Amino acid sequence: LLAAFVPLCVGGEGKGCPSKDKGADDLVKAGRTLARGRQLVEAKACYKKAVETNPRYVPGLLELGTAESQDGNFQAAIKHFSAALKQEVTSPALNNLAIAYQSIGAHADAVAAYKRVIKIDEDDDKAFYNLGTALEKAGEFKDAAKAYRQAIEIEPEEAKYYNNLGGCLAASNRTDTAEKSYKWAIKLDKRFVDAYYNLGNFLLGIGRIEEAIERLQVTLKIRPDHAKAEKKLSDANKALEEKVAAFKEEIDNAIEKAEGMRRRGEL
Questions:
Q1: Residue 95, exposed/middle/buried by CB under 10 A (0-12, 13-18, 19+)?
Q2: For residue 158, with 0-12 CB atoms within 10 Å meaning exposed, 13-18 middle and 19 or more buried, which class applies?
Q3: Segment 31-55, tens digit of pLDDT
Q4: How many angstroms separate the Cα of 155 from the Cα of each of 150, 151, 189?
Q5: How far is CA 123 from the centre of its chain?
């Protein structure tokens, strides 16, 4: 899962920055104070004023970019994050830029941004994980799996890395290793709902219905309102009924055939 932007702008329009400060630094500080007090529209106005005062002021650009992202104005956010990066290249700015790109479906640009994060810190497991999610969204499952494995190499105790790896392996028809990845995620986190659900869905897809039902039932035990798990469990139970009916029909046919052979003296 991607890190979420911190909400900065919620509420009505038209409210200006109440601060009398003129310096960009003081305006950003005022905006952050307003944000902590949930005066989010006014906070955003202060960030805008800070950027107008000093278009190269990195904290102002980053705060305004985050506010625009939260408002769904991703193109504006990309503009502000990119401007900040021209002044100073930092991992947080690149991460926010990548998230904004992913939000508009520009997965190749998100991949490029995450790769820049990794160049800054090659031991950042979260950066490799985020790179994996972007590659996965782009349909590059082999490269995504490689990124998740690199994240695991750095931090082998993080369950979600194995869960996502399992999804990529399943998409690449690597069924044995996909199953092992899902199970390892569950081993690390016994209440990892997504891993139980994904494993159940995966097992159902390869025809191991009884095992799928077991995992989906655990999913619903942990989270009773899991709508997708309810639907998949219903599908699995129906598939099991059909399997049992088919098996019964096969047995009945075999018995009928044997009785016919006995009547003809062939047995």
A1: buried
A2: middle
A3: 999 999 998 899 999 999 999 999 9
A4: 9, 6, 14
A5: 21
